[in-house]
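ok posting inputs for the DAU job
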Amino acid sequence: MAKTLLVTGGAGFIGSCFVLQARARGERVINLDKLTYAGNPDNLASLVNDPDHILVQGDIGNAELVGLLLSQYKPDAVVNFAAESHVDRSIIDPEAFVRTNVLGTSTLLRVVKNWWQNLDEPARSSFRFLHVSTDEVFGALKPGDPAFCETTPYSPNSPYSASKAASDHLVRAFHETYKLPILITNCSNNYGPRQFPEKLIPLMILNALDGNALPVYGTGSNIRDWLHVEDHCSAIALVLEKGLVGESYNIGGHSERTNLEVVKTICAILQDEVPSPTRYADQITFVEDRPGHDFRYAIDCSKIERELGWKPAHSFDTGLADTVRWYLANEEWIENVRSGAYLDWIDSNYGHRG
Ligand code: NAD
Ligand code: DAU
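and the output
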């Protein structure tokens, strides 16, 4: 029988990709999403008449609602994407991150654990709680340091990564204490269609097309390890199916790039797709750095490759060009997300940077 999944945060960038893949596999999805500024039902427009995708607007910290969804739909697994996810916002308003990422995850875990403890076999043994986390919990690498592996000690540097680290610890603790069958994934930077244009890649694409400055923090020499969102979601599905209970799995794309390289590549792709008489690269502007800016992330994903047989399908070069073309082809999606609240954010994050 097809599985039923309770997916949280499934209207966001990565969650919506996972929901679309899950529906393509025939799984029924109950999608609990608060629909914050980052949650966007347009991401799921293709499922609007799908009776096996049920979108419920609500908070993972609402114990009563989570309890109702569990008893009504009896999911085989909970996949927790819901989070405040943007580092720069966490620097301006850390408490929003504690509320959702720490307290919200804690409430979700408690309610799921109470419900799971009363399940009969075999549902009790086969149930899984998969928590989607980030490589940022491991802190920052120097050039030449070995990539993060599953046993790298946690050393988070931003309010965002500290809140994600706290949530990972809670998830692990629910396994050790109550034997809740959990799995944790820690992934590197994602890119692809439907990413909210506060993050580096979509922000640069849209600013370039608008003729605005391309604001590179510091010298642009910070390094991120990029993975296509569809590859991240295929890895999560594999961990859910075959991962060992209580384990964590690192997911990454073997695609380390400096920020300046990424921005210059976007400019070159745009120059081919939408030739401009002035060069897009001339819009690059070095601005005040992010406080506490982690220098480098890199993921050693040999465990998931070796033990579960996962491999990414997209290379960064073709995936990035496809992503640029997606933004060029989806003007309506872009117009809908760039509302008044978006413009306020651009002003508060970049207004003072000069
Ligand atoms: P996103 O900001 O695009 O989406 C987050 C979603 O969670 C939104 O739909 C939002 O409405 C929802 N949400 C927020 N608070 C909620 C709450 N209290 N209750 C219910 N729903 C709530 O984020 P994303 O980039 O899609 O990231 C998803 C998850 O993956 C996060 O947990 C993030 O930490 C993790 N992650 C992201 C990346 C990345 O590069 N974006 C990499 C590794 C891990
Ligand atoms: O590593 C995984 C993480 O990747 C996820 O956990 C986070 O949810 C996700 O937001 C992302 O965090 P980053 O801080 O790495 O992503 P962001 O797109 O905000 O920034 C990428 C790099 O680009 C980073 O070094 C900061 C830089 N940057 C970012 C913005 C928005 C700029 O130089 N200019 C900008 O305007």
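notes: The first helix runs from residue 13 to 24. The first strand starts at residue 4 and ends at 8.
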